[in-house]
Specification:
This protein has about 400 residues and is of the alpha+beta class. It contains eleven helices and eight strands.
């Protein structure tokens, strides 16, 4: 695969061949459903093995869904965020680790759209379509160990980034680095093959085991100025701070997909394999009124989370549609909607993936079913940022009307 690093920015815009746009692209939700079935076939075994799912990542590439959020003018499918999140959710029902990689790929593309110049957007997004690029993340804003030192027409990067989801096997990375002279961070993009970049596949959490979320090391890495999306100390606009909301809604839909997947797995097992308790007086487990009562409770965790996630995606789309005209107040309204949805999805994922065992009984704990992966995946990923701070933001708004402060997490 050819690199676009060595193209001059002006040439990247003028030399890029015209990109054909399909008049009737496949329905992305139908494509996602077929892809989810492929991922589900090996999900339990791959969860046991962990490591890098190279074959499954190739299935995602081959599906064409990596171009879903890219504007049609750059050769992409031009889907709205509601559609992107529906795909994340559908994939997460089958395999939340691979759904994470897919969602974070589109998060990096959102960063280019929100931070990049028109030239950078055309250069990077059209190349993503032409070359079938899969993006990974090395931006972790809480990890300031990667330093940026101004050098010839750019910067030199040294240090390490942790929790770099999707970095193993990625073609390009979004990177943040701390400029000590400016006392601020920059945000940039780089090919993962850039000399001095080393991706360490050392992710060993007990859930989300194939998210390729290891460490990325930078040893004297040259970062051209043309690949810096946000310079150190550059004041963010209300629009650019929407990136954190894109990220938070990726997580919301991951959790929701886990909850839906766990609910569906429990329901199918209840229908097909569960045995009724001897004191119930019924022949089928699904006819036990206590079982029906518990499913009703779980349903009332799931449905409000689905509704709020969809509403939050609609608000995010509306804010994106306003471009640079989006206001701080409108951005705050999006953050509130996302916080509401994320809290409910967080609770639904943890509760449904845990309580399902009380409905299914001891036989359902057999390793061959792999039902425990739903809870482990939810438990690991819901620790990304504390849910209590989302509740604080919501409570503060309820009391004083103050919207969440823009941060990389709110």
């Amino acid at each position: 695969m050819s690199s676009i690093l060595h193209l001059q920015p002006e040439a990247a815009a003028s030399e890029a061949p015209a990109l054909a746009v399909a008049s009737d692209p496949p329905d992305p939700l139908a494509v996602a459903a077929a892809l989810a079935e492929q991922l589900a076939a090996s999900a339990v075994e791959r969860d046991r093995l962990g490591g890098h799912a190279a074959h499954e990542r190739q299935l995602i590439r081959d599906s064409g869904l990596l171009t879903l959020s890219i504007p049609r003018e750059f050769g992409g499918q031009g889907a709205d965020w509601a559609t992107v999140y529906a795909v994340v959710r559908r994939l997460a029902q089958a395999d939340s680790a691979l759904a994470h990689l897919f969602g974070f790929h589109h998060l990096q593309l959102a960063g280019i759209a929100l931070y990049g110049t028109e030239l950078q957007q055309r250069h990077l997004l059209s190349a993503t379509v032409r070359q079938g690029l899969f993006w990974g993340n090395a931006l972790n804003p809480l990890d300031k160990r990667t330093r940026a030192t101004a050098s010839n027409a750019g910067y030199t990067l040294d240090g390490v980034k942790s929790f770099s989801s999707g970095s193993v096997g990625a073609d390009w990375l979004t990177v943040s680095a701390w400029d000590q002279q400016a006392n601020a961070a920059l945000i940039a993009v780089l090919p993962a093959s850039q000399p001095g970049v080393r991706v360490e596949a050392d992710w060993d959490a007990f859930g989300q085991r194939q998210t390729d979320s290891g460490n990325v090391h930078f040893d004297g890495v040259y970062l051209p100025g043309a690949l810096v999306l946000q310079a150190p100390g550059q004041a963010p606009s209300a629009r650019s701070t929407l990136r954190s909301q894109v990220a938070q809604l990726v997580m919301t839909n991951l959790y929701l997909g886990i909850a839906q997947g766990a609910f569906a797995a429990a329901r199918d097992y209840t229908r097909e394999q569960a045995r009724p308790w001897f004191a119930s007086g019924v022949d089928q487990a699904g006819d036990d009124p206590f079982t029906q009562h518990r499913y009703g409770q779980l349903w009332l965790m799931l449905r409000p989370a689905e509704v709020l996630a969809d509403l939050a995606a609609e608000q995010l789309d509306a804010a994106f549609g306003k471009g640079d005209a989006v206001t701080a107040r409108e951005r705050g309204d999006v953050a509130l909607a996302v916080a509401e949805a994320k809290v409910l999805a967080h609770r639904a994922a943890l509760e449904i993936s845990s309580q399902m065992f009380e409905l299914l009984g001891a036989r359902a704990t057999s390793a061959r079913f792999g039902f425990d992966r739903f809870w482990r995946n939810a438990r690991v990923h819901t620790l990304h940022d504390p849910v209590d701070y989302k509740l604080r933001d919501l409570g503060r708004y309820a009391i004083s009307g103050r919207a969440p402060d823009p941060t990389p997490y709110s």
